[in-house]
Design a protein that fits this description.
The protein folds into three domains: about 60 residues, no CATH class; about 100 residues; about 160 residues, 2-Layer Sandwich (Alpha-Beta Plaits), CATH 3.30.70. Helix content is about 70%, strand content about 10%. The protein has a five-stranded mixed sheet, sandwiched between helices. The chain has a two-stranded antiparallel sheet with strand order 4-5. The longest helix is centred in the N-terminal third of the chain and has 60 residues.
Length: about 350
């Protein structure tokens, strides 16, 4: 008892020390003490994530600023993967335990069936002998008891197996949720970069087999840093969610909207020509521009959001990197040409320079 109490006090003191260390580090690094940021620095202080520790150590040594994008990237790469790994480990342990329990129950059922079979064999041998009515009645009673016992055990086994089946289904659902979470951007609820990379590989492969083209939109929020600097990161997060929603509302179920990184988004359009992709991109651009950004806490209208979009289509021999590179080059031309516009790879570069 005393040992458990001493361990509890030790753990409590250690948690408090780690919390103080995390808050002190956040203050030294100029990091806003939000719950998400605290979780990041608490994990760093605890030493439980060596990979994240190396990154933060290097940043502190080089005196690099912990911007909102840097912090979000660290949370996405380090904390999300750690949570996913832990959830998978927990589910795997649950599956192993459940399967072990099922095997134990089946082994017991096998032994019960063997006992019942031996009882029937003995009964079969005894039937050949001359027996009195009292002996026959005792014999029948023995068979009835053995049969009822077997029925009860079979019913119990069925109930236990149904319960085990429910546990396995719950664990499967848990793993499905973990997988979905690992492929979703926590802030905007669209696909994250990991999901985008996998989907683009699959889309290019399908296009190569079917002979159809896919199109890729690369989208960047114009003057996003200005919103963050003027109104704070919470408003910046609101902008990101707004743009993600606008993009999701304008695509079909077969298409993929993803947060590519920071304030940049991407859309994979299956079985879509360059012309139709360009029309959709301009539809998204106009839809975003039509929205008014309102500060939730005060109701103040902060202005409108605009986006620039580059559009490229898949070609024979394309890789994900080559397609992204061409769409990104078009995005750069749209930004250089004045922003709030769409540029596709078939438009002459000179035309954009003149338009600027």
């Amino acid at each position: 008892m005393a040992a458990r109490l001493g361990m509890s006090v030790y753990l409590q003191d250690r948690e408090q020390a780690l919390a103080k260390t995390a808050l002190a580090l956040m203050s030294e690094c100029g990091v806003t003490p939000t719950p998400d940021n605290f979780e990041l620095f608490y994990t760093y202080a605890s030493g439980r994530n060596p990979a994240m520790g190396q990154v933060i150590d290097a940043m502190i040594s080089a005196r690099r600023p912990f911007t909102s994008d840097v912090l979000e990237d660290l949370r996405s790469r380090c904390l999300s993967s750690a949570r996913t790994t832990q959830a998978i480990d927990n589910a795997s342990t649950g599956v192993t335990d459940t399967l072990s329990a099922i095997l134990g129950k089946l082994e017991a059922a096998g032994r019960d069936a063997g006992d019942y079979g031996r009882t029937l064999s003995r009964a079969s041998g005894e039937l050949g002998e001359e027996q009195s009515p009292a002996e026959l009645r005792k014999f029948v009673d023995t068979l009835i008891v053995a049969t009822r016992t077997m029925e009860a055990r079979a019913a119990s086994l069925e109930k236990e197996l149904q319960h085990s089946s429910q546990q396995v289904n719950a664990l499967k659902s848990q793993l499905d949720d973990v997988r979905k979470e690992s492929l979703t951007d926590a802030l905007t609820s669209v696909a994250n970069r990991k999901a985008f990379d996998g989907e683009l590989v699959a889309a290019i492969g399908d296009a190569r087999e079917s002979g159809e083209t896919i199109a890729l939109l690369m989208c960047d929020i114009d003057h996003f840093k200005r919103f963050n600097d003027s109104w704070g990161h919470q408003t910046g997060d609101q902008v990101l969610r707004l743009v993600a929603t606008c993009m999701s509302e304008n695509v079909k179920g077969r298409d993929t909207v993803a947060r590519f990184g920071g304030e940049e988004f991407a859309v994979i359009l299956r079985r879509t020509s360059l012309d139709n992709a360009t029309k959709l991109a301009d539809q998204i651009r106009a839809f975003v521009q039509s929205k008014k950004l309102v500060k939730k806490s005060t109701g103040d209208v902060l202005g409108t959001i605009t986006v620039s979009i580059g559009v490229a289509r898949s070609c024979e021999g394309d890789t994900p990197a080559s397609l992204i590179q061409r769409a990104d080059a078009c995005l750069y031309r749209a930004k250089r040409g004045g922003r709030n516009r769409v540029v596709n790879e078939d438009e002459p570069a000179d035309a954009q320079i003149d338009a600027a």
